[in-house]
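Annotated sample (chain length 154).
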Amino acid sequence: MFTIRDAYLRDIEKIIEYRMKLLFELGKVEKEDGTSKLRDATRSYFINKIQTGEFRVWIAESAGDIIGMTCIQFIEHPPIYENIGGVEAHVMDVYTTNDWRGKGVATAILEQVIAHAKEHNAKRIVLNTIGTDTRIYEKLGFTPISGAMEMFLD
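Output written by the structure step:
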């Protein structure tokens, strides 16, 4: 059994730990705990954005242990026909510990995230999938998109 709740500032270190593990699993960092520079920058970002309400993290907990998390951030764009209000939700860091994978944790958190996005009038939710298994997202109604490009600037 598990419960879903908002993250608190006291959860920051565990959130950072799970983000580093996720980035490691995705091949984005070389070490499972990331680097101290990345961890420090992540800590500063999360503390600032959670306190201002610009960023929200949901935690799944079982017997007092954090077993999963997902984050959301709203972005406001100029209106387009499909999204007159211009509000989009960007979902990231969908992570569940190994022992709890396949037990509905991520689905339960994502259902709350989707409801929250609707409450905040988001008309589009963007979720970047880096892995190849997208079944959980498709089951919830997400559809694959293409046509994106990126550039990293110095």
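Annotation: The mean pLDDT is 92.
Annotation: The chain is about 35% helix and 25% strand.
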